[in-house]
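Could you help me review a protein record that somebody else here produced? Here is the record exactly as it was handed to me:
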Amino acid sequence: MARDEPDGRMKRRDYEAELEKLQVELCHLQQWVQEYGARVIILFEGRDAAGKGGTIKAITEKVSSRVFRVVALPAPSDRERTQLFMQRYMQNFPAGGEIVIFDRSWYNRAGVEYVMGFCSPEEHQRFLSLCPQIEKYIIDGGIILIKLWLEVGMEEQERRFKARIHDPLRQWKLSPMDTESYRRWYEYSRARDMMFAATSTEHAPWRIVRSDDKRRARLNCIAHILERIPYARVKREEVKLPKRSGKGHYDDQESLRGMEFVAERY
């Protein structure tokens, strides 16, 4: 791929051309998942401002939300805090013919919960110990599990945070938790490394995506997902539109006369 932007990043037109090809393949993947009742879970984790949301949007832009289902859970309620830790995640697992994308997942316990003190050291260690066993159970149950970590550099994260501060369209993306994660960069690095050491297993390995260049990161993520799922193109019958029924004496536009329409400002 040509590095023809002044800062060495992928040029937009090259990115859009490659993205279109990959999105076509995602549509073929979608049809295969529906045809064979496959179940897929894709986890997106990474530092704040690493580009998870944009990557998920690129994946889901041209496919059905009924097949590619995005789950981004809020902080647990008082009731959920009394449940088994994995319980609220498992109730969002895919049925046959679904791909569930977790925008952050049960690995919150290994990251933000641990660093910010929302769980005890004992709960953190218990999670790291049990997680590989739980994921083995998930995979043995027939679910394809893909775990992706988006890694953004320190300088690029700072640039993105500063851009959000001054952009009214992105200010909502910058929360107090984000600014605290910025301050605790190295605490998050240590938590990340402990997580990788304990949970990157042969049956459920982590894959790291460099995301300083968002465009390349999105393409690399999609290409990896397509490689990890053993799909094939499903032959589908050509759709032919039937003839419309006769309208008789009914005028479906005349019947709208007198209704209130939205003002045509554009």
